[in-house]
Amino acid sequence: MIIFTLIFGHFAKIPSDGLPYSIFAYTALLPWNYFSQAVTRSSDSLVSNTNLVRKVYFPRLIILVAEVTSPLVDFFISFLALVVMMVWFGIVPGRTVLALPLFLLLALTTALAMGLWLSALNARYRDVGHTVPFLIQIWMYASPVAYPVSLIPERWRLLYSLNPMVGVIEGFRWTLLGKEAPAFGVIAMSATVVVALLFGGIIFFKRMEHTFADVI
């Protein structure tokens, strides 16, 4: 947050929708850090549990769910720091905060959907695991973490919203910081992509599941 505030907020003068840049960035980093941890851990979950996968039969999806939910502990600890910052800046969320669990669920579902695809691919092609950190890094700058969605030209926003984390981050800022209502079309598009990725990932994971013990 400090680095983002100095580089993007102070030097680059990136707008922050009228909010202090530090809390503007931190509110986006909160779901992003959860997502990046969950995807990184879930993508490597099958390979890191090789002995368990080979010796015992059980629904392998349980491993992914465990890896996706465990970073929630860090999320809630980091959330306490956000509460302190909101008190410091005198920001009081309105009724929109009631929608926060929905966007947290959307972040969790997005991480699970990506974990389904990446873990199955990583079980068969080990090089996939090495590309995940680069994918996460590029994905962060393709998401509105350091900048607002308002910087994206109107004609490109629908395409931009195909990134499922756009809806998550915009939802967090809207529910917590009381910024003006986001483009719900953007959130709806992101949620639709997440659902498609999730169901496609479940089908792909189930088709690959019977080979995990042989290829890991």
Describe this entry's structure for a reader:
This protein is mainly α. The chain has one domain (about 1-215). About 75% of the residues lie in helices and about 0% in strands. The protein is built from twelve helices and no strands. α2 (about 20-45) runs antiparallel to α8 (about 125-140) and α5 crosses α7. The longest helix is centred in the C-terminal third of the chain and has 26 residues, at about 185-210. About 35% of the residues are buried. The mean pLDDT is about 90.
Give the tags.
216 residues; mainly alpha; 12 helices; 73% helix; elongated
Count of individual helical segments? 12
Supply the number of structural domains: 1
**Overall geometric form:** elongated
What's the overall average pLDDT, rounded?
Answer: 89
Low-confidence stretches: none
Decide which structural class fits the backbone: mainly alpha
The H-and-E topology, N to C, reads as HHHHHHHHHHHH
Separation, N- and C-terminal Cα atoms: 38 Å
User: What is the radius of gyration?
Assistant: 18 Å
Beta percentage is under 5%
The percentage helix is: over 70%
Tell me the major beta sheet: none
- Strand count: 0
Outline:
With 216 residues, the chain is an all-alpha fold. 73% of the residues lie in helices and 0% in strands. It has one domain (2-215).
